[in-house]
Design goal:
- By secondary structure, the protein is mainly β.
- It has one domain: Rieske Iron-sulfur Protein (3-layer Sandwich), CATH 2.102.10.10.
- The protein is built from no helices and 9 strands.
- It is globular, with a radius of gyration of 13 Å.
- This is Nitrite reductase small subunit NirD.
- It comes from Uliginosibacterium flavum.
């Protein structure tokens, strides 16, 4: 049995933007779309002060937290040095223009 959940068409997520998905088990999950139409998903809380990453600025494969400018790698959820910490990444895929999330 597959644990992939259909989320939305890719076009519902703005380039360099995000969409938040609610999960009973994991809380809010932010799904990001890069300028190259790659998609990534992480827990929507910065490891520093739990800022909403979904409201941050996407650049390359990173997002900058809107509260204190920590940079988070979208592929791994790890903070970029010199900051230390991580937020949980989730598996996400794009098939035929539709975004799927595995939780």
């Amino acid at each position: 049995m597959s644990d992939w959940k259909k989320i939305c068409p890719l076009t519902d997520i703005p380039q360099l933007g995000s969409r938040v998905v609610k999960s009973e088990k994991h809380g809010d999950i932010a799904i990001f779309r890069t300028s190259d139409d790659e998609v990534f998903a992480v827990h929507d809380k910065c490891p520093h002060k739990q800022g909403p990453l979904s409201q941050g600025i996407v650049h390359g494969k990173q997002v900058t937290c809107p509260l204190h400018s920590w940079k988070i790698e979208l592929e791994t959820g790890n903070a970029v040095a010199p900051d230390i910490g991580c937020t949980k990444p989730f598996a996400v895929k794009l098939e035929d223009g539709v975004v799927f999330l595995s939780v």
